[in-house]
């Protein structure tokens, strides 16, 4: 498929390729002009590849398509430098340009030396090909492929079977708890006691999945209903205890709310099942420490938490009972009962 567009590298670009492989260049910017691959710009390395990345790449991305060859700080087993290829084609580009840059990419790789290019990124915006975008690309490439519906069902059944066999004794500071019971540590208990004593407003707990243990994550003494959601991670499940200070019907109230957050399929099946099965245990632990949990709620995202949400959960609106009406008469064509026949005596 090489040279399928008939476009080849200019002599200047070929010379730049040879120079870049010696290891001084950090970046080469290449564009298609006059039916050739032309060197548009280049830059020598200054810092590490991470430090140079955004400072070198982003200012060179304009409203027209281009290729960026960017050198990493790694070398292959043969000692050659490793590069990544960024293909930047803005959404505003003409259709012909989009097709031309897509079809010429293999030519560029071949003439530069495909063995030197260890990764490729295609992007339509600067965010797509920024350092953060590249790191997300690497994370996605390393992530396991998504499970089919049948595979996920089998994994859930397998985890459920495993959990049914779990028999873990609770910490010596806990009495017997029902369901799946993981041990906790003194730090967790210490911060929950401070929450009970009104020295803390917020406490977050997690499950150490490897050691199957309930752990303290963080606490805070200034969290409000407006900032509560900022504590909720978007990639892992967590348990949260929050002192909800508010007014209701003229009274100043201080209510402890338990929040179980789980971002759905962003975390593993095992993580979701363990957190779901242990939430009652965590609430029971709080109650054993004399923490009066007035409400337990479940959310997927911190954006769900607000003053209105908490108010509705802690003080649900009472639905007025519908007024009872007299039973309406039946339809006029309802069959009437036959009159009772008179006896001879009555006649």
Percent of residues in beta strands?
A: 25-35%
By secondary-structure content and strand pairing, the structural class works out as: alpha/beta
What is the alpha-carbon Rg in Å?
33 Å
CATH class of the largest domain: Alpha Beta
Low-confidence stretches: 164-179, 320-325, 343-347
Mean pLDDT: 84
List the total number of helices: 9
Largest sheet: 6 strands, mixed
Molecular shape: elongated
Approximate helicity band: 25-40%
Give the beta-strand count: 11
Distance between the termini: 113 Å
* Strands in their spatial order, largest beta sheet: 1-3-2-4-5-6
Give, in order, the helices and strands.
EHEEHEEHEHHHHEEEEHEH
The CATH architecture term of the largest domain is 3-Layer(aba) Sandwich
The named CATH superfamily of the largest domain: Severin
What is the CATH fold-level name of the largest domain?
Severin
Q: How many domains? A: 2
Description:
The chain is of the alpha/beta class and 347 residues long. It has 2 domains: 135 residues, Severin; 148 residues, Severin, CATH 3.40.20. The protein has 9 helices and 11 strands. The strands form 2 sheets. Strands 1-3-2-4-5-6 form a 6-stranded mixed sheet, with helices on both faces. The longest helix has 20 residues. The chain is elongated.
């Amino acid at each position: 498929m090489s040279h399928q567009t008939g476009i080849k590298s200019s002599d200047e670009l070929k010379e730049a390729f040879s120079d870049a492989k010696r290891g001084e260049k950090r970046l080469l910017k290449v564009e298609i002009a006059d039916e050739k691959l032309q060197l548009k710009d280049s830059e020598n390395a200054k810092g590490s590849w991470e430090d140079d990345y955004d400072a070198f790449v982003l200012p060179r991305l304009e409203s027209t398509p281009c290729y960026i060859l960017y050198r990493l700080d790694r070398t292959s087993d043969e000692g050659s430098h490793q590069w990544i290829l960024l293909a930047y084609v803005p959404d505003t580009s003409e259709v012909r340009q989009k097709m031309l840059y897509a079809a010429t990419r293999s030519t560029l790789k071949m003439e530069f030396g495909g063995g030197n290019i260890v990764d490729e990124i295609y992007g339509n915006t600067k965010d797509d090909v920024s350092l953060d975008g590249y790191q997300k690309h690497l994370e996605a490439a390393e992530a396991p492929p998504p499970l089919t519906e049948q595979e996920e069902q089998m994994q859930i059944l397998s985890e459920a079977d495993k959990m049914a066999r779990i028999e873990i004794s609770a910490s010596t500071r806990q009495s017997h708890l029902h369901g799946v019971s993981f041990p906790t540590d003194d730090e967790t208990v210490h911060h929950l006691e401070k929450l009970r004593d009104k020295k803390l407003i917020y406490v977050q707990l997690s499950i150490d999945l490897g050691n199957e243990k309930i752990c303290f994550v963080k606490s805070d003494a200034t969290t409000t209903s407006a900032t509560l959601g900022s504590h909720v991670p978007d990639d892992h499940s967590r348990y949260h205890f929050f002192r909800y200070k508010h007014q209701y019907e003229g009274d100043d109230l201080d209510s402890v709310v338990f929040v179980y957050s789980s971002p759905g399929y962003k975390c593993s099946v095992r993580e979701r099942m363990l957190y779901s099965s242990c939430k009652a245990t965590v609430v029971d632990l709080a109650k054993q420490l004399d923490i009066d949990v007035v409400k337990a709620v479940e959310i997927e995202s911190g954006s769900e938490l607000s003053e209105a949400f908490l108010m509705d959960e802690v003080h649900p609106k009472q639905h007025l009972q519908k007024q009872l009406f007299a039973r309406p008469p039946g339809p006029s064509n309802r069959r009437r009962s036959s009159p009772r026949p008179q006896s001879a005596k009555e006649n």
